[in-house]
C-alpha cells in the first residue's frame, strides 16, 4: 500500500536517483524509508552513513543527518557518531565491497563490539559503479570485468560472517520478497545492538549483462528463485540447497550494547575514581 | 651549573622511578630546570635499563648526555656499557654486590653494597633504587636532602612510603660515613 | 594558581587535550605515541568523554571524525606507519571541513623503520600525505611546555577553521620529561565551534555567504545536512561542475592561507646581525639554540629561525631573512625536507642554503651543528 508520508523522509529535490533502470537499490531504500516511517523515528535523530559505490549514494536521498564517507570505512565514522551521541539512530548503508572487502575488518569488529548501529548491506555481488569487477560475494564461476574467465574465488556468506563475529541481530532478505524485507529492516531498527541486514540485490548493468541476465526481470528472478525461507531451508538436503540461500532472521539476541556498557562500566567508574 | 646524571641497571631494579624522584627533587622541589629521559621499552625484567637526568640552573638546550657527572651502575652489564661515558671529574656509584669486575684503580668509583643494604633494611632488594637516590643526593649536592625526601613522598605508593624514606636516609648516612671527603657537608 | 609539574610530551598532550574540552579519542596503539592513547583512555571518561581503541589506524581517525560531526572536540594520535594509514581520512576531514586534531609522534622510517628512535621524516607527509591539492596546518613544538601550549592551539585552530590540524612532535619531545607550568583552565584561550546563525531549514554546511569558514552544525539538532568526500556545492551535495569545484577548492585554500597571519608562529634568536641563520624545528631546535650561543662565543654571528607553524611554511619570512644574512644552515632529522622550503624562500637571493641532517635515529647534537657552522663559515 502506497504511503505518501514516506516523502517526509526523502530529499525529493534530489530525485530521480542515479541508479540504473532495473537496479534493486531503490527497492531497498524504499523499504528502509517505509520502515522508518512505520516506526515513527524522528528524522532529526537519525544519522545515515554510507561508503563508496552505488549504495553509497543512498544517504543523499534521505532527509536526515547524512554522511557519505570513504570506501569501506563508514562503520568507523558510525562508531564515533554513536559513541558521541548515543541518542541518534545510526544506520550504515554499505555495498558488498564496502562491508566485506575493504571494510571487512571494521565489519567484524563492529559485530564483536555489538555497538548499536544498523548495518544494511546492499549485496549485488559485484562492483557496479567502477565497472563490474568481481567482489567477495560474486559467486564462483560467474563472470566479471576482472574475472573474464569466470570467478575462481569462493564467496563470503555474510550472514555466517556476522554471526561468527558476534552481531546480536542478523538477517537476510532480498529485493523480491518485500514483505520479509520490510519486516527485517523494522526489526533491525528496533533492535538494540549491532544489527546486520544483508539484502540480496541486483545489478543488471554490470552483473546481469555479463551473466546472461541483462533484462532487469531476469536478475530479479535470479534472486527470487534462489531465496529460500529459513523454515524451508532447514528441511532441504545439501543437494537441494546448492546455488540457493536462506532468507529470514538468523540471530536475534539481547546482549549488552557497547556504548551503554562503556557508559556504565567505564564512565561511572572513572568518575568515582574506582580503578 | 649543569649536571648530567645517568642511572643504569637491570629492568625491574626501579631505575625509572629513581630517575623520576631525582628529576622532581631538582625540578619541582629545588626550582632547577630538568630534562629526564630513558631507554624506551626496556621494562622487561633483566634487560639493560637506563635513565638520564639533566639538571641546570639555566635553560637546557643539550637534551642528551655525552659524559655523565654522576653515573650509577646497579649491574655489571650497566657498568660494562656506560662506565666509559663518565667525565674525568665525575663520580661512578656502583652496587658492589652486582658489579664485581671494575677498575680498582679508578678513583672516581664510589662503591656500596647497595642490594645487601636493601636486604638488611627490608629483607628485599626492592629498596636498592631509593638507597641509590640517597647516595646520589649527597654525592652530587645539586639539591637538598629535604627536597629529595619531598619528592619521594610524592612519587612512591603511600603504603611503602616509610620504608622508602628509610632507604633514602640510609643512603645519605652510609655515603657520608664511607666517603666523608666527597659526601660531607 | 599555576601548578608546576614534571611530565613527558605525550602526557602534556593528554593534559592539554582534556583542558581544551576534547571529549573523544579514537585511535590504535603505536610506539612512540601510545602513552597518549593510554592517558586519554584514563582521563576522558572522568570528564564524561569517550575513548575507543579501534581495530586499526584508519578506524581510529574515522571514529574521531564521526564524533566530531556530533559537535564534540575529537582527536587521534599516531606515529609513522599509523600516520601513513590515516592519510585518506585526513583528506576526508579536509574535504568535509570537519575539525579534528591528529598528533603524529615522528619516529624513524620508512616502513616500520625505528619505532623507538626519533626522526623528523614525516614533515612532507604531513604536508602532502593525503592525495589531491589541499592546505593543512601543522604545528611543531620544541619542548614539553610548548607541546602543552600547541595542543590547545591545535584544537582552537581546528575549530576556528573547520580543518584537521596536525601536531607534529618527535620521539624525543614525546618521551622526555620536563617542567610544565600549568595555569588554571580559565586562563587559557579555548575556542569552541561556532554554531550556525541561520534557521535550520536554511542551513547550508558549505555556505560561503558566511565567509571563508561556514559554521558547522552538529548532527542530531535538526539541521539535517549532507557531507561527502566528493567535490560538492554549498549545500554539501556532490557536484563536478567545474565552476562550483573551482569555488570550493579556492575557498578551502583561502580559509587557511588568508588567515595565516593568525597562526603564523615562529621564534627568532639573534637574527638581527646574524651572518648565518640556523633553521631548525622540534627537538633539533634545542641543539641549535646551544650551537648558536657557542658560535657567538667564537665570534661567529649566528642566529636561529625556528618555525613553530611548520605548515603552511613561511617562505616570506625566509625571504626577508635571506636579504639580511649570508648563509642559512638547515638542520633536521631527515635527509632533507624543510631545507627545500627554505631554498624556495631564499630563491633568487645569493644567500646559500646549507644542510645538516640524517635519518639514522641519532639525535643531532649542538657540537655537530657548531662544527657545521664553522665549516660553512670557513673558520
UniProtKB/TrEMBL annotation, chain A:
What's a Gene Ontology MF term here? thiamine pyrophosphate binding
* InterPro entries per UniProt: 2-oxoacid:Fd_oxidoreductase (IPR051457), THDP-binding (IPR029061), TPP_enzyme_TPP-bd (IPR011766)
Q: Give any single GO term for biological process.
A: cellular respiration
Which superkingdom does the taxonomy of this entry point to? Bacteria
Limits of the Thiamine pyrophosphate enzyme TPP-binding domain: 52-199
* Entry annotated with the keyword Cell membrane: no
Q: Which UniProt keywords apply?
A: Oxidoreductase
| Pfam families linked | TPP_enzyme_C
Could you tell me what this protein is called?
2-oxoglutarate ferredoxin oxidoreductase, beta subunit
Name the species this protein comes from. Answer: candidate division TA06 bacterium 34_109
Show the taxonomic lineage: Bacteria, Bacteria division TA06
TrEMBL record, chain B:
Q: What UniProt keywords are attached to this protein's entry?
A: Oxidoreductase
Classification via SUPFAM superfamilies: Pyruvate-ferredoxin oxidoreductase, PFOR, domain III
Which InterPro entries does this entry report, sorted A to Z?
A: 2-oxoglutarate_synth_KorC (IPR052554), Pyrv/ketoisovalerate_OxRed_cat (IPR019752), Pyrv_flavodox_OxRed_cen (IPR002869)
Q: Name one Pfam family in it.
A: POR
The source's domain of life comes to Bacteria
Domain Pyruvate/ketoisovalerate oxidoreductase catalytic residues, every copy? 11-173
The Gene Ontology terms for molecular function here are:
oxidoreductase activity, acting on the aldehyde or oxo group of donors
| Protein name as it appears in the record | 2-oxoglutarate ferredoxin oxidoreductase gamma subunit
**Species for this entry:** candidate division TA06 bacterium 34_109
UniProtKB/TrEMBL annotation, chain C:
Please name the source species: candidate division TA06 bacterium 34_109
Provide the alphabetized UniProt keywords: Oxidoreductase
- Report the protein name in the record: 2-oxoglutarate oxidoreductase, alpha subunit
Instruction: List the molecular function annotations (GO) for this entry.
Output: oxidoreductase activity
InterPro entries linked to this entry? 2-oxoacid_oxidoreductase, PFOR_II, Pyrv_Fd/Flavodoxin_OxRdtase_N, THDP-binding, Transketo_C/PFOR_II
Domain Pyruvate flavodoxin/ferredoxin oxidoreductase pyrimidine binding residue range list: 16-244
NCBIfam families, per database record: PRK08659.1
SUPFAM superfamilies to which the protein is assigned, alphabetical: Thiamin diphosphate-binding fold (THDP-binding), TK C-terminal domain-like
- Ranges where the Pyruvate:ferredoxin oxidoreductase core domain occurs: 274-369
What is the taxonomic lineage of the source species? Answer: Bacteria, Bacteria division TA06
Amino acid at each position: 500500500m502506497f504511503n505518501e508520508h514516506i516523502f517526509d523522509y526523502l530529499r525529493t529535490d534530489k530525485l530521480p536517483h542515479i541508479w540504473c533502470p532495473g537496479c534493486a537499490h531503490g527497492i531497498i531504500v524504499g523499504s528502509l524509508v517505509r520502515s522508518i516511517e512505520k516506526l515513527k523515528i524522528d528524522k532529526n535523530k537519525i544519522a545515515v552513513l554510507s561508503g563508496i559505490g552505488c549504495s553509497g549514494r543512498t544517504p543523499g536521498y534521505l532527509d536526515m543527518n547524512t554522511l557519505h564517507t570513504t570506501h569501506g570505512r563508514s562503520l568507523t565514522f558510525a562508531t564515533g557518531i554513536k559513541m558521541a551521541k548515543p541518542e541518534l539512530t545510526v544506520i550504515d548503508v554499505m555495498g558488498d565491497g564496502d562491508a566485506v572487502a575493504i571494510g571487512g575488518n571494521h565489519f567484524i569488529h563492529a559485530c564483536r563490539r555489538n555497538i548499536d548501529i544498523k548495518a544494511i548491506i546492499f549485496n549485488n555481488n559485484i562492483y557496479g559503479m567502477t565497472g563490474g569487477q568481481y567482489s567477495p560475494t560474486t559467486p564462483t564461476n560467474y563472470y566479471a570485468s576482472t574475472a573474464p574467465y569466470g570467478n575462481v574465488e569462493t564467496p563470503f556468506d555474510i550472514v555466517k560472517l556476522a554471526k561468527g563475529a558476534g552481531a546480536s541481530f542478523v538477517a537476510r532478505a532480498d529485493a523480491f520478497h518485500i514483505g520479509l524485507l520490510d519486516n527485517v529492516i523494522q526489526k533491525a531498527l528496533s533492535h538494540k545492538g549491532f544489527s546486520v541486514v544483508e539484502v540480496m540485490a541486483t545489478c543488471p548493468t554490470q552483473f546481469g549483462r555479463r551473466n546472461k541476465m541483462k533484462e532487469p526481470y531476469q536478475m530479479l528472478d535470479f534472486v527470487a528463485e534462489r531465496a529460500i525461507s529459513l523454515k524451508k531451508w532447514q528441511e532441504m538436503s545439501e543437494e537441494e540447497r546448492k546455488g540457493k540461500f536462506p532468507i529470514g532472521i538468523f540471530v536475534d539476541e539481547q546482549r549488552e550494547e557497547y556504548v551503554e556498557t562503556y557508559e556504565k562500566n567505564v564512565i561511572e567508574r572513572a568518575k568515582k575514581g574506582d580503578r | 651549573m649543569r649536571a648530567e646524571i645517568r642511572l643504569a641497571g637491570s629492568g625491574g631494579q626501579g631505575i625509572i622511578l629513581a630517575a623520576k624522584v631525582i628529576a622532581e627533587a631538582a625540578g619541582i622541589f629545588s626550582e632547577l630546570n630538568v630534562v629526564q629521559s630513558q631507554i624506551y621499552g626496556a621494562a622487561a625484567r633483566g634487560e639493560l635499563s637506563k635513565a638520564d637526568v639533566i639538571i641546570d640552573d639555566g635553560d637546557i638546550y643539550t637534551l642528551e648526555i655525552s659524559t655523565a657527572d654522576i653515573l650509577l651502575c646497579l649491574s655489571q652489564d650497566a657498568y660494562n656499557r656506560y662506565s666509559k661515558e663518565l667525565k674525568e671529574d665525575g663520580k661512578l656509584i656502583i652496587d658492589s654486590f652486582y658489579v664485581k669486575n671494575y677498575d680498582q684503580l679508578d678513583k672516581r668509583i664510589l662503591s656500596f653494597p647497595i642490594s645487601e643494604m636493601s636486604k638488611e633494611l627490608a629483607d628485599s632488594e626492592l629498596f636498592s633504587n631509593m638507597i641509590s637516590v640517597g647516595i646520589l643526593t649527597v654525592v652530587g649536592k645539586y639539591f637538598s636532602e629535604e627536597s629529595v625526601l619531598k619528592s619521594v613522598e610524592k612519587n612512591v605508593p603511600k603504603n611503602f612510603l616509610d620504608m622508602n624514606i628509610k632507604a633514602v636516609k640510609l643512603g645519605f648516612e652510609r655515603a657520608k660515613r664511607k666517603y666523608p671527603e666527597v659526601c660531607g657537608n | 594558581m599555576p601548578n608546576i609539574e614534571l611530565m613527558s610530551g605525550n602526557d602534556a598532550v593528554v593534559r592539554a587535550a582534556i583542558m581544551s574540552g576534547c571529549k573523544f579519542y579514537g585511535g590504535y596503539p603505536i610506539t612512540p605515541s601510545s602513552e597518549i592513547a593510554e592517558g586519554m583512555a584514563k582521563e576522558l571518561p572522568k570528564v564524561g568523554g569517550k575513548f575507543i581503541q579501534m581495530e586499526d589506524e584508519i578506524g581510529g581517525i574515522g571514529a574521531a571524525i564521526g564524533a566530531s560531526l556530533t559537535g564534540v572536540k575529537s582527536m587521534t594520535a599516531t606515529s609513522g606507519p599509523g600516520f601513513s594509514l590515516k592519510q585518506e581520512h585526513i583528506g576526508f576531514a579536509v574535504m568535509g571541513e570537519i575539525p579534528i586534531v591528529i598528533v603524529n609522534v615522528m619516529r624513524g622510517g620508512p616502513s616500520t623503520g625505528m619505532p623507538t628512535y626519533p626522526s623528523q621524516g614525516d614533515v612532507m607527509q604531513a604536508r602532502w600525505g593525503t592525495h589531491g591539492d589541499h592546505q593543512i596546518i601543522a604545528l611543531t613544538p620544541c619542548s614539553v611546555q610548548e607541546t602543552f601550549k600547541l595542543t590547545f592551539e591545535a584544537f582552537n585552530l581546528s575549530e576556528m577553521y573547520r580543518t584537521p590540524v596536525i601536531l607534529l612532535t618527535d620521539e624525543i619531545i614525546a618521551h622526555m620529561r620536563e617542567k610544565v607550568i600549568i595555569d588554571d583552565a580559565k586562563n587559557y584561550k579555548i575556542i569552541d565551534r561556532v554554531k550556525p546563525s541561520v534557521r535550520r531549514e536554511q542551513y547550508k554546511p558549505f555556505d560561503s555567504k558566511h565567509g571563508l569558514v561556514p559554521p558547522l552544525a552538529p548532527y542530531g539538532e535538526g539541521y539535517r545536512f549532507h557531507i561527502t568526500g566528493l567535490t560538492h556545492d554549498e549545500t554539501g551535495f556532490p557536484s563536478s561542475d567545474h565552476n562550483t569545484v573551482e569555488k570550493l577548492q579556492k575557498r578551502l585554500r583561502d580559509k587557511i592561507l588568508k588567515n595565516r597571519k593568525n597562526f603564523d608562529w615562529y621564534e627568532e634568536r639573534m637574527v638581527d646581525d646574524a651572518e648565518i641563520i640556523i633553521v631548525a624545528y622540534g627537538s633539533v631546535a634545542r641543539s641549535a639554540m646551544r650551537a648558536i650561543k657557542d658560535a657567538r662565543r667564537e665570534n661567529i654571528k649566528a642566529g636561529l629561525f625556528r618555525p613553530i607553524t611548520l605548515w603552511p611554511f613561511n617562505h616570506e619570512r625566509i625571504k626577508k631573512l635571506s636579504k639580511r644574512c649570508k648563509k642559512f644552515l638547515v638542520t633536521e632529522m631527515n635527509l632533507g625536507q624543510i631545507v627545500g622550503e627554505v631554498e624556495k624562500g631564499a630563491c633568487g637571493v645569493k644567500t646559500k642554503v646549507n644542510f645538516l641532517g640524517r635519518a639514522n635515529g641519532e639525535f643531532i647534537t649542538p657540537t655537530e651543528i657548531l662544527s657545521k657552522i664553522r665549516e660553512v663559515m670557513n673558520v
